[in-house]
Amino acid sequence: MGKGISKRGIVVAIIIVAILVGAGLGYYFTQISAPLEKITVRWGSSKVGSVGYAIVFAMAKVVNDYVPEVYMEAVPTAGSIASVKMYGKGELEGCYCGLWNLVDVYKGTGPFEKEPYAGVNPKPEMGFFTHTSEDFLFVRADRTDIKCWRDLAGKTVNIPFAGTSIYERAKCALEALGIWDEVKVVDIPLSSIPDALKMGTIDACFVYSDAYFTAPPSFMKEVEARVDFKIVNPSPEELEILKASIPPCRYRIMEFDPKLSFSKDVGVDKVVTLLGFYGWHTHHEIVPAEHMYKIYKAWVEHIDEIKGAHKVCEYLADHVLEFQVEAIDAVHKACPEIPVHPGVAKYLKEKGLWKDYWKVGE
């Protein structure tokens, strides 16, 4: 007694240690192999019938088919700004918006100037980019009084979707040319454009094509069928003013062959456009990194199943990772403080596409 540990005591000690070690290892392996908690993600899009509305339903189906840890619900909203504001209020877990809108959120400009973003949810980090949109100007073909953009002074011009980047890009350009306050801006239903042009209710129209001018919206097909129209580009002098006055990378001025969108002569060999990027964004505190990694991976690797949702996705399907890099780089140049969601960053790093100067959400 008291001179050592009995054999029985040693056996008991070994058993206790074995139990503790086993329990510890069991807990460890349980933790590293435990499935992710299932979450529901309500992802906002834009108006019913819009490009964003069509795409998000296909994206949701891919997530629900291939990511068992996530149930994604596609939610239409009044537009990209509404989508961001609903996300901020905690009514959505993901939002739809363009580069322009993301910069507004982080800079407190545009729709967030009077009411800075102060939502329940943290500011969205960059997620998955799906397409571009390109603004351009056209008039009825027999109009001889509008030969450049400054000729819009004193005219009635249709610019769709106030509060979206489509509207904001056109506004920014006309402000740079010094005529914004001289233009009567209206926003008529897109289906009314042919009749409004014919009757002279509107003198000109800023509209858009998508996906590097390869995917015109359906309403422009009706305009093309019912109205003889011509595209009006900015004059060379105006173009130089626009290039010099663009807020840092908020949009790009790009030229395209009009035959990419239209089957008839529209009066120009090249159409000058104001181009912006669009995508689907959230924050890692709302959609955790591992969940977003699996969501993003599913979108990229099953992009052919999203392709049929809208013509804009045909370009995306052929250039999906290349397009992600281009869009992230464009956002970074416009506002370096906007981070990439860590789940997205993980996937891009695995593919060797990550740029060291990009910022990861922390």
How many separate helices?
13
Instruction: Please write the string of helix (H) and strand (E) elements.
Output: HEHEHEHEEHEHEHEHEEHHHHH
* Shape estimate: globular
Question: What summary fits the major beta sheet?
Answer: 8 strands, mixed
CATH architecture title of the largest domain: 3-Layer(aba) Sandwich
Q: Can you put this structure into words, describing what you see?
A:
The structure is a single chain. This protein folds into two domains: 39-130 and 277-350, 3-Layer(aba) Sandwich (D-Maltodextrin-Binding Protein, domain 2); 133-276, 3-Layer(aba) Sandwich (D-Maltodextrin-Binding Protein, domain 2). It is 41% helix and 18% strand. Residues 11-33 have low confidence and may be disordered. Helix 9 packs across helix 13. Strand 1, helix 2 and strand 2 (70-75) form a beta-alpha-beta unit. The longest helix has 27 residues, at 7-33. It starts with 6 loop residues before the first helix and ends in a 12-residue tail after the last helix. The protein is globular, with a radius of gyration of 26 Å. Strands 3, 4, 5, 6, 7, 8, 9 and 10 form an eight-stranded mixed sheet that branches. It has a two-stranded parallel ribbon with strand order 1-2. It has 362 residues and is an alpha/beta fold.
Short description:
With 362 residues, the protein is of the alpha/beta class.
Write a concise keyword list for the protein shown above:
alpha/beta, D-Maltodextrin-Binding Protein, domain 2, two-stranded parallel sheet
